[in-house]
Amino acid sequence: MKLTGAQALIKSLEEVGVEVIFGLPGGAILPVYDPILESHIRHILVRHEQGAGHAAEGYAYATGRPGVAMVTSGPGATNIVTPVADAYMDSVPMVVITGQVGTPVIGTDAFQEADVTGITMPITKHNYLLTDPEEIPEAVAEAFHIASTGRPGPVLIDLPKDVSQAETKWYWPDALDLPGYNPTTKGHSRQIKAAAKLILESKKPVIYAGGGVIKGRAADELRSFAELTGAPVVTTLMARGAIPDDHELCLGMPGMHGNYTAITAMQRSDLLITLGARFDDRVTGRVDGFAPEAKIIHADIDPAELSKIRRADVPIVGDLTNVISALSRAVQSEREKKPSPDLGPWWAQLREWQKKYPLAYEGPNGDGLKPQFVVEKLHEVTGGDAILVSGVGQHQMWASQFWRFNSPYSWINSGGLGTMGFAIPAAIGAKVGRPDETVWAIDGDGCFQMTGQELITASISRIPVKIAILNNAYLGMVRQWQELFYDERYSEVALGKDIPDYVGWAESMGCAAFRVDDVDDVIPTIEKAQAIDDQPVVVDFRTDWTEHVYPMIPAGASNDEVILSKAEDPDATEDHVPAEGDTR
Question: Considering the chain, what is the average pLDDT of its residues?
């Protein structure tokens, strides 16, 4: 059967089970858009290529399957570089297809030419520049395999226009030929046994669960292992929900804005059982002061992560579903030889810290709603029965702190790259992937202004996401740092109190929209938003612009230097008088 390269590409995507493509057409990719008309694959037309990439990420987070984005050459390709980098940092499976100028003019600075394979080489697991239409089926099959196996990540296929227009004979590869690509999935038995022995010697263990538990779909195995060992579990920003927050073994989130007990448990631990985490600087603080007495078990699918930041006493390479199950079996076996240590004193200390240093915030005393209160009420009204997506900044931290994550695979955010503008398109992708779920995005006003136009996509494509803007009229996290570390020299962080009109903007994009200024209106308005299921909803919560995210560990400090509140921070000012020209 003879096909054009474009037809072969769409047929190949059908073969690997693609349900939806997020994209925006342009000249170089135009031949591929024609056969989409005959395909069962749904195409969702975004308003900016960055939106296509983040929507594909949201889809991947929600479903566990690779998200797909397709854009044109030149600026279309460069506009999607940020989502590709975001997916690479957070191990999100994604396949990106970019159009390219014709092969005869590659390298000549042709109209809308960019070396996208060169640009993205450091931020993809693999990428392709195809020069023959016969290569298309094999490249697509490989791309989806690479993106979704081992440590997941983005793969990019760059398709020149003449290649997509040329004819080829259709085939589908019987097998993949990927010499050198053979991810280790089963942990070495000797390492598993050594880890089990350390676990049964530990009197103050902590299970340090990272995003790899989520990406590896290993939440059930984690919970069983934690219950078997009786060890407390901390869940990083990327692992929230890996074990229910309501579980007695869960300590919550550690790190720069984690809670005191999770932070200090790691600091005082004698053993960190590290599962799919990478000792990120936001978790460790100053590395030479991090968990100084702890031995390290480190399990990860990516061998490059082992001992990269902190030397592992027992490194284990493997898929976490296999590794955690094997650890559970090994611990049970070792217990038959020797009894487990009594963890009672350790738990008594942890419970004392939890009682003494809970996550808390002051009641209404500033200009606007408390953002933490808004997050709590969102959780209360929804019962936590929703996929929660966030942008990046203060609102991201409050969402992680004050939402109770009791289901895995229900928290979607940009962790490693910290990409503002992530939330709205990612929420759209998540809703497309799991249409029967309620999807709420908690966004900041700064983030909203970056990708808010994708709500047009949601309205026209009938994707009823719900957006809660925690609107403090500032780039809040930057302002917080300027207040604490730059002597209140507020340089270019004021976004404006009344411009834009978020309700008017949202309504112009086809959304239902509400503004909330008063605490008494928070719950009724959330209930109204919950009841709307035929269009996107935006709620503009006017929040207290003076509020900071606490606890906080200053950059470069040890985790022992955690600041619990503004009252404890010698660099913070309780009463700030806005400078002349300050929009608040």
Answer: 94
We report the CATH number of the domain holding residue 230 as 3.40.50.1220
Q: Annotated catalytic, 161? A: yes
7 labelled catalytic: no
Establish whether 377 is a catalytic residue: no
Domain, as residue range, for 400: 371-568
To the query of whether residue 477 is one of the catalytic residues in this protein, the response is yes
pLDDT of 570 > 90? The answer is no
- What distance in Å separates the CA atoms of residue 271 and residue 289, rounded to the nearest whole number? 15
**Can 112 be counted among the known catalytic residues?**
yes
pLDDT band at residue 107 under the 50/70/90 scheme: very high
Residue 55 lies in a domain: yes
Q: Which of 397, 420, 477, 552 is catalytic?
A: 477
Choose the catalytic residue: 14, 15, 112, 193. 112
Q: Is the pTM here over 0.85, yes or no?
A: yes
C-alpha 395/C-alpha 168 separation (Å) is 51
| Of 410, 414, 407, nearest in space to 430 by CA | 410
Confidence band for 581, pLDDT divided at 50, 70 and 90: very low
We report the CATH number of the domain holding residue 403 as 3.40.50.970
Same domain, 332 and 375: no
Q: Which of 138, 169, 200 is the last residue of a domain?
A: 169
